[in-house]
Design a protein that fits this description.
Helix Hairpins; two-stranded antiparallel ribbon; 4 helices; 100 residues; mainly alpha; globular
């Protein structure tokens, strides 16, 4: 199945459960942070992170749907923002070229 097909199935799942009309961006953001905590726990414990990352994507797709956006268009905007960025990782922090 393509990522677009999964995204559409997830959008419909949210609609079928009243998670678009019956929720808010703020509610979904709080859920996203909860899921991020679960990802942090799995990373710290060396556990499989696929479910945690997937859960975060499910919540992000809810927020995208609410704002009439797609994952592909958000990735395109993000890539356009970073594609020419230069820099390096120093002590666990990415330092943009020119910021050092």
């Amino acid at each position: 199945m393509s990522k677009e097909e999964y995204e559409e199935l997830i959008r419909q799942w949210h609609k079928d459960r009243n998670l678009i009309e019956g929720s808010t961006d703020k509610d979904q953001y709080l859920k996203l942070i909860q899921e991020a905590g679960e990802l942090s726990d799995s990373l710290c414990k060396g556990k499989d992170i696929r479910d945690d990352v997937g859960d975060m994507l499910v919540v992000l797709i809810n927020i995208l749907t609410r704002n009439k956006l797609t994952l592909s268009e958000c990735l395109a905007v993000a890539y356009d923002d970073i594609k020419d960025r230069k820099g390096k990782m120093v002590d666990g922090v990415f330092i943009k070229e020119g910021d050092s």
